[in-house]
Design goal:
A four-stranded antiparallel sheet has the order 2-1-3-4. A hairpin with a 6-residue loop joins strand 3 and strand 4. The protein has four helices and four strands; from the N terminus they run αββαββαα. It is α+β, with helices and mostly antiparallel strands. It starts with 6 loop residues before the first helix and ends in a 7-residue tail after the last helix.
Amino acid sequence: MRRGPSCASLKEKSALGLGVVSQKYALTAPYYIYYIAFRSHDIPMLRASHWIPSFPHSAREIWVKQRQIRDLLLAIEPGARWEKHEARRCPRCHRWVVGIQAQMMREREQRARLKGEASPPCSDYCEARSGLTLKSLRRLLAPKAPES
């Protein structure tokens, strides 16, 4: 069973400029989020994985990460207002930036990647997130076996 297009067709698409992103630069490709505002009724409940929790949302306004979810919501209310914004998440502190800041961050990351350097901080207040996870926290808090 064949899973994807052949290398020859990818090279042809790339030569024609048809939106093929090289794997080398895939991490610095633009990423978009969508703001949707319903006019006549409330937005149905979505799974938390579909909307962006750190962005404001209400019964009639929401920010979503996926174009498919945007299309689904627009099918529910075709007259809803929506906006497309470039967004980026800082690889160090995981803070979201939108618009021109996201574009500038993407360009800085691309320059750093080409130079083989680490990604620069997103702001003066950017601090790397701790590697503390729920699993490592449980390990730290677990009762120790008595030594004999």
